Amino acid sequence: MPGPPYNHTMETPATFFLVGIPGLQPSHRWLAIPLSAMYATALLGNTLIVTVIWMDSTLQEPMYCFLCVLAAVDIVMASSVVPKMISIFSSGDGSISFNACFTQMYFVHAATAMETGLLLAMAFDRYVAICKPLHYKRILTPQVMLGMSVTITIRAVIFMTPLSWMVSHLPFCGSNVVLHSYCEHIAVAKLACADPMPSSLYSLIGSSIIVCSDVAFIAASYNLILQAVFGLSSKNAQLKALSTCGSHVGVMALYYLPGMASIYVAWLGKDTVPLHTQVLLADLYLVIPPTLNPIIYGLRTKQIRERIGSLLMHCLFDHSNLGS
């Protein structure tokens, strides 16, 4: 499927054109199928998580509250990019207005910054629950939870606002074709007629500080959790805790590894790693975590699984009664 022609103007373009995955345009229609399925799964799973936790007064513990916020952020993160990606892959419609492009950029990158903070908060919650169970309610009070959530949000806003401002105020007087599936800031900044290095350097340093610090604290939390788990006398309790921790670590790896790889490859391996691989890495860390998070964090949790089953049965029986 050929991309739109290059547009050379002397004014800021009113519209950008997203090409999808450069070099894989013939496969776009096939890629749209699994992408649509993953997006539908992410929307359904995360909406169920938010609905069940919001409606059930017994699920108001810190772990469930953080999970509810994570599910909401996953919906925002996936919805910021996936519908447009599906449109590109299925119909070739890659046009996006200048303002919409930078709005998408802001929300998707702010959501990813919030996601890493929430993963850290959830790791801290598990640390307190397993290593200091007698002090759990005294440490994670509603005020502390609210403070952590507000801090995570403010950190994302503080990081993303200057980056969006720097990129949106660059002069765009050449090509308006973005070699990406969404308005990723480096891909957009490369089109500028001025040096994009300040914004790119800010992004690299800011992302590295946020992710590396969060990963370090998450690793420390799970290290202490594992020490406590191996100190348990019950083998069943050990296996159950290890299964839960292993699932959480797996989801985090699927989030952090493609995300950081896409950032560093854009800087260090841009001449050796094919462009379609770089774009695929950037796409994966926006699609896979929102799809898997409700399964790993939600449906594997007995209380949430039971509440979702009750909610679905209630809806089905009410629908049947109305039909009869």
From TrEMBL:
Q: What is this protein called?
A: Olfactory receptor
User: What membrane topology does the UniProt entry give?
Assistant: Multi-pass membrane protein
Q: What gene name does this entry carry?
A: LOC109377378
**GO CC list:** plasma membrane
Q: Which organism is it from?
A: Hipposideros armiger (Great Himalayan leaf-nosed bat)
Q: Which UniProt keywords apply?
A: Cell membrane, G-protein coupled receptor, Membrane, Olfaction, Receptor, Sensory transduction, Transducer, Transmembrane, Transmembrane helix
Q: Which PROSITE patterns match?
A: G_PROTEIN_RECEP_F1_1, G_PROTEIN_RECEP_F1_2
Q: Which GO terms describe its molecular function?
A: G protein-coupled receptor activity; olfactory receptor activity
Q: Which segments cross the bilayer?
A: 31-54, 66-86, 106-124, 144-167, 201-225, 246-267, 279-299
Pfam families, per the entry: 7tm_4 (PF13853)
- Name the CDD domains for this protein: 7tmA_OR52I-like (cd15950)
Instruction: Identify its protein family.
Output: Belongs to the G-protein coupled receptor 1 family.
**Source organism's superkingdom?**
Eukaryota
